[in-house]
Amino acid sequence: MSARPRIRRRRRTKIIATLGPASSSPEVLNRLFQAGADVFRLNFSHGTHEDHAARFAMIRELEARTGRPIGILADVQGPKLRVGAFGGGRVHLQTGQPFRLDLNATPGNAQRVMLPHPEIIEAAAIGTTLLLDDGKLRLRVTRKRPDALETEVVVGGPLSDRKGVNVPDVVLPIPALTAKDRADLAFALDHGVNYIGLSFVQRPEDVAEARQLADGRAWIMTKMEKPQALDNLDEIVRLSDCVMVARGDLGVELPPEEVPLAQKRIVRAARALGRPVVVATQMLESMISAPAPTRAEASDVATAVFDGADAVMLSAETAAGQYPFEAVNIMDRILARVEQDQGWRAMIDASRAEPEASAADAIAAAARQVGHTIGAAAIVAFTASGATALRVARERPDSPIIGFTPHEVTARRLAVVWGVHAVVAPDAHSLAEAVARAARAAQVEGFAAAGQEIVVAAGVPFGHSGSTNTLRVAVVGRRDAAEA
């Protein structure tokens, strides 16, 4: 195994950092990675393909220089529903007044404005709620016509050109992927992206369409941001490779008191099905302009760790904020500190899902139990596709997990998975060779010293995905191993 820099995170929960104007130089990128970023997010709602191509190149150069696999998330925009323009650029709607949304392209005024989405007009009904400008204004449909919705302003306020529209009550007949998204997705896949962030998911069919387009070239990270998606939660999670609790739009369309409960429900569902789950949006929002977070923000991050999230995400904090390095650094410190707490381990153990009735899941559960009993320095999971490492991570073991894979793409995907430190190395040809490599990797990567025990989970014969069927205990620095 070739020598590599010893970069090891002292925590299980991973960090995703969004790149943008504040973090698009090699120097800042390197500082973010050294501070703790495991995955970098490219937000395709902003920037050109040329901008994103330059960031792709910088990330891969950093990866080559550090010798550590780095995941890249391409977050596609999804359909953006907006009102049209106003004659003066801005109006003020009074609570209780009537207001019409129609298909007329004439600039709007305080009585009406264009809604260039006939799908919304068709799907709405009397009593349907429409939220404008991230929920700052609220309308209720009082009358429906083929080309317009007559509404009453329930909550008024200023409204300017092309502000967003949310329709929390209705499943809209709009696909999750627009023509722009398809072009962005093709671009990202051609550049070797590791995860596709899928926005505006309402139905399982939305995820199935994205999976077909990705064709196995990237994991689909479904963003849970629509109340309608919660109605099909288990099926959507099952179809996804990983899941994001996207609290931005979710917080617009759900009452505030419902968002924490939805977050916990999504995290539980993802953990039960063994899908990595990310908690995102406004985690350290004040750090866009301040060098330290609020106490409430620190507590919010800690809650995601106690829930057992695989990763937490920074958005504007690192993309456009004044303190991107400080945001990642304090996030890293909060995660590490929470994971040192005895109450955290008790909550993680209490919320662990039962293994499925398969040999692979039985081996993963046994690896956790054996590792706990003997105080193993690490669990080494030999994994071609990533499935074995995912199964072991689902068990949330005490021991760190080394994901040993012959495929660089698998190692990059595992960057988002709880507790997994991925290592790229050629496949073993025998169990004895695998155990020897595992022991050497645990030592070289800084997880174990000579004389410490490790647990090895693998599939025999090697080179066949989905055949996890073997568990070994090995002593680092010794040739013998005892079968568990």
CATH superfamily of the largest domain: Phosphoenolpyruvate-binding domains
Query: Which strand order spans the largest sheet, edge to edge or round the barrel?
Result: 1-2-3-12-13-14-15-16
Count the beta strands: 22
The CATH topology of the largest domain comes to: TIM Barrel
Class of secondary structure makeup: alpha/beta
Q: Into which percentage range does the β-strand content fall?
A: 15-25%
What's the number of helices? 17
CATH architecture title of the largest domain:
Alpha-Beta Barrel
- Domain unit count: 3
Whole-Å distance between the termini? 26 Å
Q: For this structure, what is the CATH class of the largest domain?
A: Alpha Beta
Radius of gyration: 24 Å
Which tags fit this structure?
alpha/beta; 17 helices; 22 strands; Pyruvate Kinase, Chain: A, domain 1; 8-stranded parallel beta barrel; disordered N terminus; M1 Pyruvate Kinase, Domain 3; TIM Barrel; 484 residues; 6-stranded mixed sheet
